[in-house]
Amino acid sequence: VQLQASGGGLVQAGGSLKLACTASGTIPxxxxxxxxxxxxxxxxxxxxxxxxxxxxxxxxxxxGRFSISRDNxxxxxxxxxxxxxxxDTAVYYCxxxxxxxxxxxxxxxx
Length: 110
Known about the structure:
Layout: E1 2-6, E2 9-12, E3 17-24, E4 34-38, E5 45-50, E6 56-58, E7 66-71, E8 76-81, E9 90-96, E10 99-100, E11 104-109
Parallel strand pairs: 2-11
Antiparallel strand pairs: 1-3, 3-8, 4-5, 4-9, 5-6, 7-8, 9-10, 9-11
């Protein structure tokens, strides 16, 4: 499995961005796909994920602002990020079954 993340960029506080993670290779299911982020000097943390059962989970810091969704036909999982804050600035990674994609940088200016 290979993962390709895209959609990062520079946005002002209060703005929105939509990240995409496309999986290629043998992919039985997108269940288990997660978005993580790592800010400078901090540990990588889970942001949002699709559970093994197909549900969704969110970090408390993004709940109500971020939304994870999927397009099975495109083998793609999205992360819609609204009401962005400077503290959301980080490199965002997608993960599926221990495979990591290359990160995409999100920078939120105040």
